[in-house]
Design a protein that fits this description.
The chain has 227 residues and is of the alpha+beta class. The protein has 4 helices and 13 strands. Helices cover 19% and strands 33% of the residues.
Length: 227
């Protein structure tokens, strides 16, 4: 089956907003609380496991992304990237820094750190890995391991212009509030596709966080909320 190209996800109808679910409380969004939740999560079932390569016929490929939580005075911020518009895949999309596992990588943590440094120039000396989320399987058959990390301020970013248009920060509290989680649905070739979005209005533009990035953030919400 051919994978449907979603070139304008913000135009896909919204079928629901999760404003009935509680936000993660402020005390659960502190560094000690997040450390504790990740340490206690030995095995749990995520809300979104992914589409598992429904639209491609190839062997799964390992990948990893960094979920970088920047320690700011106003609270934790999530560092995200906006892909360049000329990329063949995921052009203009909002994503975590990361990519496929290479043979020289010693596991997903090494992949996430290497890709982050290559994509946005964030030196690993500012990064402390504190845990991982369950593997997320994308429609393109990537098995993505989200690596959660704390990032100390004081870093300077140098995004790779071939891949990254910009890097920006979103308050973690905003993303961990389901009132900002929107469900979308559309039909393709007799099947239904659904995805989440978490639109964030920045100072100069709206960042439409959706798809795999939003799904992995929703899994983080479930972990931190204890749901």
């Amino acid at each position: 089956m051919t994978r449907p190209a979603i070139t304008q996800p913000h135009l896909v109808p919204v079928t629901g907003i999760d404003d009935a679910l509680p936000p993660v409380p402020a005390q659960a969004l502190t560094i000690p609380a997040i450390r504790a939740r990740l340490a206690a999560a030995q095995a749990w079932t995520p809300e979104f496991a992914g589409d598992g390569g429904r639209f491609v016929d190839r062997e799964p490929t390992g990948a990893a992304v960094l979920v970088p939580l920047v320690q700011r005075d106003a609270g934790l911020q999530l560092l995200l990237t906006r892909r360049t518009d000329h990329l063949r895949d995921h052009a203009g999309q909002i994503s975590f820094p990361g990519g496929r596992v290479e043979p020289e990588d010693e596991g997903p943590v090494a992949t996430a750190l290497r890709e982050t440094e290559e994509e946005i120039g964030l030196s690993r000396r500012f990064i402390e890995v504190i845990g991982q989320l369950p593997v997320y399987s994308t429609v393109t058959a990537y098995q993505v391991t989200p690596v959660v990390a704390l990032v100390q301020p004081g870093f300077t970013l140098t995004p790779d212009p071939a891949e990254v248009a910009e890097a920006f920060e979103v308050p973690l509290a905003f993303l961990m509030n389901p009132a900002h989680h929107r469900h979308h649905q559309f039909d393709f070739a007799g099947t239904q596709r659904r995805f989440l979005s978490m639109p964030w209005q920045g100072a100069e533009r709206e960042y439409f966080i959706w798809g795999a990035t939003a799904a992995m953030l929703r899994n983080l919400y479930r972990l931190l909320s204890g749901a």
